[in-house]
Amino acid sequence: MTTDTGGNAYPETVTFTSENCPALPRAYGCEGMTLLDYFAGQVIVSLAALPQYQAVDDCILAHASYSLAAAMVAEKRRRETT
Length: 82
Hints:
Layout: E1 14-16, E2 28-30, H1 35-49, H2 58-80
């Protein structure tokens, strides 16, 4: 099953080269995080801040965060088509 990532959260592609970043020996491109990753990050921060989730295993929080993020991306797609 393929998960819709929602595309890039910050769609500007950044390319680092030795000209604009002398520490890099070769060109390196970065498209940033996906919208799914961004949503999951927002969810996990919110969950981790709640006292009832302080003792919950990190893997469970991560799984729950990505599940909720996937639902948000799906809802976003649904709203875009209506």
